[in-house]
Amino acid sequence: MEPQEILGALMRPPGRDDPYPLYAAARQLGPLFAIPEFNLHVCTGFELINGVLRSPDFGKYEFEYLPQEVIDQYVEGGSVHTISSSILDANPPDHRRVRSLISSAFTPRRIAGLAPAITRVAGELFDEFERLGAQGDPVDFMEYFAFRFPVTVICELLGIPEQDRVRFRPLAHDLTVALELIDDLTKLAPADAAAAELRAYFEKLSEQRRAQPEDDLISALVQVNDADDGRLSDGELIANLTLLLVAGFETTTNLLGNGLELALKHPHVAEGVRKGEIPVAAFVEEVLRFDSPVQLTSRTALTDGAKVGGKEVKRGEQVMLLMGAAHRDPARFTDPDTFDPLRPDNTSLSFGGGIHYCLGQGLARLEAQIAFAQLFERFPEIRLAAEPTRSDRLVLRGYETLEVVLQGAAA
Ligand code: HEM
C-alpha cells in the first residue's frame, strides 16, 4: 500500500476498528517514511519513536507552522485553543513552569497514599455492578464501571462535586475529537461546544473555590493563579483543569475496556491473575502494549537539522509517532502479535516519553491494577453478552459498549 492510502484507511471506520493490519502495511515501508505532500513523516519503529519523544529538537506544533487559513477556522476558546493552552501542547519554558505546578499532586508517594480510597471506590462500584447483573441481565461494563471508576477518582482529586460528574462522559467524548486525525475541520463543532461548556463550568467552580478554598487541586491552582505573578494565567488555569479532567479518565476508561475484552478472549490469563500466577501489574502492562488506549501522537521539528534515525526533518515538519504500531515492532518484541502478560522486558510507549511523559501514569496503573484484581476475583464467570462496539476513534482507542453477563449463560 502507498503511504497516503494507509493514512486514509486509518482515518476511516474499518481501519479505526482494527488498525493493526494497516500498521503492519506501514511497517513494510520502513520504520520511518515521508509523505511530502503533507510535510509529514510517519514513524512506526519503537526505538525511533522513543528517540523522538525524548529529543529536545522536537516538540509540540506551534501555530506559526500552520497556514493562516487553518488557524482562522479554529474557534477562539474552542477545543483546539483549549488543548493548545494546556501543558499537553506546550513547549519549554512554558511547559516546565506549568507542569511543575501540577506535578506535586501526582508524586509516587501521593498516588500510593490514594490506594485505600481507590480500592474502596472500586469495591462500591462493583457492588452496584453485581446488583445490576444479579438476574443474569447484561450490564455494560463501559457505562457502569470503566467510566464511573476513573471519573470518580479524578474528580475526588480535583475537587469536583459528585452531582456534576454524569455530564463528563459525553463532554470528554466530544472534546477529544480535537485529538483525532480529521480531514474536515467542521467535525470540530461538537468538540468546540464541549470545550465551551467545560470552560464555563471550570470558571464557575474556580470562582467558588476562590471564595471558599478546599483541600483539593482546583483550590491549590486557583491560589497560584491569584498570586498574579506570571506562574499561571487565567487561560492556563482553565485549560489545564480541562486537560486533567479529560485525560484523567477517558484514557483510563479505555484501558479498562480494552483490558476486559482481552481477558475475556484469553480466559486462562484472568484465571492466572486470580490464582496469583500472573501479577496483575504484568497483565496491565501487556494490555497497555497490546491494545494501547493512546495509539499515536505527533511532534514537530523545532530546530534546523533535527534528525530521526539519521534522516533530516526540516524545521516545522511534523512526525507522526504511531505508538500502536511500535508496540507490535518485531525488532523490539518477540511474537509481538501474541498477548502474553509474562513476556520479559515489557516496556511500552503507552504513556509517551520525555518531557510530556504522562503525568497520570502512576494513577492510571494503580487504578487498573486495583480494578482488574477485584474484577477477576469477584466475577470468575464473567463473559460477553454481545459483540462489543468500538468508539469511532483512532487516537484514543477504546470501546463504546462492552456488555457482559456476570454469571450463567451468555445471551
Ligand atoms: C491508561 C491511561 C492513560 C494513558 C494511556 C495516557 C497516555 C498519555 C500520553 C501518551 C501522554 C503524552 C502525550 C504526548 O506526548 O503527546 C500523556 C500525557 C498526559 N497525561 Fe496521560 N494517560 C493516561 C492517564 C492519565 C491520567 C489518569 C491523568 C491524570 C490524572 C493523565 C494526565 C496526563 C497529562 C496532564 C498529560 C500531559 C503531560 C505533559 O504534557 O507534560 N493521564 N498521557
Automatic annotation (TrEMBL):
GO molecular function: heme binding; iron ion binding; monooxygenase activity; oxidoreductase activity, acting on paired donors, with incorporation or reduction of molecular oxygen
Tagged with keyword Cytoplasm: no
Pfam families xrefs: p450
Stored InterPro entries: Cyt_P450, Cyt_P450_B, Cyt_P450_CS, Cyt_P450_sf
CDD domains per UniProt: CYP164-like
UniProt keyword Iron, yes or no: yes
Keywords: Heme, Iron, Metal-binding, Monooxygenase, Oxidoreductase
Family of this protein: Belongs to the cytochrome P450 family.
Protein name (Swiss-Prot/TrEMBL): Cytochrome P450
Gene source species: Actinospica durhamensis
